[in-house]
Amino acid sequence: MAVMGVDTQLAPALQLRQHLLLGDVQLRRGKGKEALTQFQQAERLATADDRWRTVYGQAQAQMLLQAWGPAETLLKQVLRSGSAELARLSRVGLVQVLNEQGKYNDALTRIKELLPTSEATEKASLTWQQMRALLGVNKPKDANERFRELAAAAPPAITEADEFLILRNLVAALIKAGEVESA
């Protein structure tokens, strides 16, 4: 018998893997509610070792649903889990969630702590979030400096869509601050 695409006749460990896989698929499809359900089902079957992967998946689903408070709570739990890989992924996610909630100063504080020890890809993501936070606290000149540093490094993690959105927000903030004239 199958429940939510998972064969309930299988051993719990295999059911867990199916829920995790289906949760990941739903995330990629942009279906936050369905992904959240799969990760919650997986958590019910998870051992202590697997639990943090299910919590991280739930946090990703909450972010997709723009449920920033629950996402923040879940990401903080993952950061305390002891899993180095999930903690690394959660650090950037937590900064994003803080920005989405308008907690720009909290995001900037966390970024300041994380940047010195971050590897290149994480550093690029944190710098993007730093620019968002700097724009949020009305520091467009500082955001522009971070953008120039990031553009000079040209990491592969930056997409043209990300670049366009940051540039658009940066230009709008500079215009608002009177640093450049609007057309």
Distance between the termini: 63 Å
Helix content: over 70%
Strand order of the largest sheet: 1-2
Got a strand count?
A: 2
SSE order in H/E notation? EEHHHHHHHHH
Number of helices: 9
Rg: 19 Å
The main pleated sheet reads as: 2 strands, antiparallel
Shape: elongated
What's the average pLDDT? 81
Could you name the ranges where pLDDT drops below 50 across 5 or more consecutive residues?
none
Q: How large is the share of residues in beta strands?
A: under 5%
**Secondary structural class:** mainly alpha
Summarize, please.
The chain has 183 residues and is an all-alpha fold.
Describe this structure as you would to a colleague:
The model has no long low-confidence stretch (mean pLDDT 81). The longest helix has 17 residues. With 183 residues, this protein is mainly α. It has 9 helices and 2 strands, in the order E-E-H-H-H-H-H-H-H-H-H. It has a two-stranded antiparallel sheet.
How would the blueprint of this fold be written?
Elements: E1 2-3, E2 6-7, H1 12-28, H2 32-45, H3 48-64, H4 68-79, H5 84-100, H6 104-114, H7 120-136, H8 140-153, H9 160-176
Antiparallel strand pairs: 1-2
Helix pairs in contact: 1-2, 1-3, 2-3, 3-4, 3-5, 4-5, 5-6, 5-7, 6-7, 7-8, 7-9, 8-9
